[in-house]
């Protein structure tokens, strides 16, 4: 079964010729602009929308879909999330990039192989991604997802190893 991952949302229309104003994940301009097809979920089914053109405008993308040539034709999609097949995302991941749902629930260990907690979420502070880790004492701490601190990620072993510098966790 094909898994779909959200890559944006149709926020509104732009102009009168069916162009959509689309919001997408920060720092993903190149990936988003490389797409030639996305999907919208309608009644539990994913309907493909072929992309005719994409241009960036004020932190959004202006997207023209094939066969949508007016505001009225676009309105049924306003507020809809746009998806791509998971494989499309995986093909574009670099060596040290992961999908958020792969990281959530991984156990976190320090450099001495002592379990310190598990990942409950991932966010971004503009400079780097942050792992939200629920510690053994049930506190949530934010760990910068940078090489100096996160030394190893093993999806297969469901484990993340960190350099637990003083003050990072408790």
Task: Describe the protein's topology.
Layout: E1 4-14, E2 19-24, H1 29-34, E3 37-42, E4 45-57, E5 60-65, H2 71-75, E6 81-85, H3 86-92, H4 100-103, E7 107-109, E8 115-124, E9 129-135, E10 140-144, E11 150-154, E12 159-162
Parallel strand pairs: 7-12
Antiparallel strand pairs: 1-2, 1-6, 2-5, 3-4, 3-6, 4-5, 7-8, 8-9, 9-10, 11-12
Describe the structure concisely.
This protein is mainly β and 170 residues long. The protein contains 4 helices and 12 strands. The protein folds into 2 domains: 4-92, Elongation Factor Tu (Ef-tu), domain 3, CATH 2.40.30; 100-162, Roll (SH3 type barrels).
CATH topology (level 3) name of the largest domain: Elongation Factor Tu (Ef-tu), domain 3
Name the shape in a single word. elongated
Total number of strands: 12
Low-confidence stretches: none
How confident is the prediction overall: mean pLDDT? 90
Percent in strands: over 45%
Derived structural class: mainly beta
Largest sheet: 6 strands, antiparallel, barrel
Separation, N- and C-terminal Cα atoms: 42 Å
Number of domains: 2
Give helix % range: 10-25%
State the fourth-level CATH superfamily of the largest domain.
Answer: RimM
CATH architecture of the largest domain: Beta Barrel
């Amino acid at each position: 079964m094909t898994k779909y991952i959200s890559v944006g949302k149709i926020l509104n229309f732009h102009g009168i010729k069916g162009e959509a104003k689309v919001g997408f994940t920060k720092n993903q301009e190149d990936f988003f602009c490389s797409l030639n097809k996305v999907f919208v979920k309608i009644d539990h089914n994913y309907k493909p929308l072929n992309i005719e053109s994409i241009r960036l405008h004020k932190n959004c993308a202006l997207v023209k879909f094939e066969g949508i040539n007016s505001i009225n034709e676009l309105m049924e999609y306003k507020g809809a999330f746009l998806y791509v097949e998971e494989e499309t995302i995986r093909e574009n991941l670099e060596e040290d990039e992961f999908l958020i749902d792969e990281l959530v629930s991984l156990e976190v260990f320090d450099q001495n192989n002592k379990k310190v907690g598990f990942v409950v979420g991932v966010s971004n502070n503009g400079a780097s991604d942050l792992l939200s880790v629920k510690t053994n004492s049930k506190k949530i701490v934010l760990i910068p997802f940078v090489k100096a601190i996160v030394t190893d990620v093993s999806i297969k072993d469901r484990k993340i190893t960190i350099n637990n510098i003083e003050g990072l966790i408790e």
